Amino acid sequence: KRLKENSLKLIKQVDPVDLRILLSATHAVFASFQAFWNQVRTTIQYGRDHVEKENVQRYMEYGLETNFWIKFRPYLQCRSTRRIGPEIGGAKSWCNSEYFQRAEPHHFFSGGSGFDYVYESIIYTWIPNARIVTADCFMNREEVARSTGWKEDKFVFKERCLTGDVRGDVPKGLEDKFVTFTQLLNECKRKYGIDSFNAVKVNIEASEYGMFGHVFHENRSDSLLKGTSHIHLEHHRMGMQRFGKSWASLLWSELLWATFLSGGFHPVSTEKWHDSTACQDVEFVNQTWYLEAEVSAVRDVMEFSGAIPFSRFSEDIAQFECGEECQGFARTVSESRK
User: Fold this and answer.
1) pTM of the model as a whole
2) Half-sphere exposure of 163 (CA within 13 A, CB side)
3) Distance of CA 186 to CAs 15, 59, 181, 182, 196, Å?
4) Tens digits of per-residue pLDDT, 27-38?
């Protein structure tokens, strides 16, 4: 319904010569819904066999991990997708990045950090006047300030973690630091005058289920994501590594993606971490923004400034001082790997 209404509005606004482009893009969005739901129907019928060990012989041509992750793929393609950032670590794919940049984006949100500010560094290199809000309740604001050196007029750090409406699913002792996206955005509006984000990046170790369950419930996204065109999600499966390859985890992931599509955000690119079975990067874009960007990609192709020089994103773009908490975190990760 939302797609139909917005498409009809755009049809009345576009130049007649651009109408075929708009109708083609609209058809692609409808096809995205259809392709996803076709995959879901197949998964409901056969998915348990695809990922459970007792059926290895039947479905081992590609392997059980592939059987799981192949379902979570792009269902919509952009005319232009550019991976912006260093070759290794922190880079994100951006659908129709020229159109995004021409709109002069200003506010960005980064959920989860873990002493890694590569995403923020990339945004500042690409969009120098950006203001970024980063939230992570497992880090100390003073240490973050010392590590980055960024001032609050450009970088706001909140000792907050994101969750949904269901309580009792957060670490004990940190209940007062977990908030919904509504609460976080209200605080940003009250203190900093930020009432929306042009792009949202989330890496919150499977808390994305609760967070976006809250965001998309009863059309909350109409206000919470009113200015958001891109969502970069680190999609974790429930159970994370070897415990995540299960029928229940598969269904949770299908529900997560269905929630995004029902809210009008479509997956346009994925990047799987092959040395980890726990997660992958996914780029979702707002379907109405996608229609506008696709028309612009053809209509304004001669006006685009061209590719961003790769040299601007060196491999050491974000080398920060590692304080006491950062060093402790590194030791924990090292012990976990052992």
Assistant:
1) 0.91
2) 16
3) 38, 48, 8, 6, 10
4) 999 999 999 999
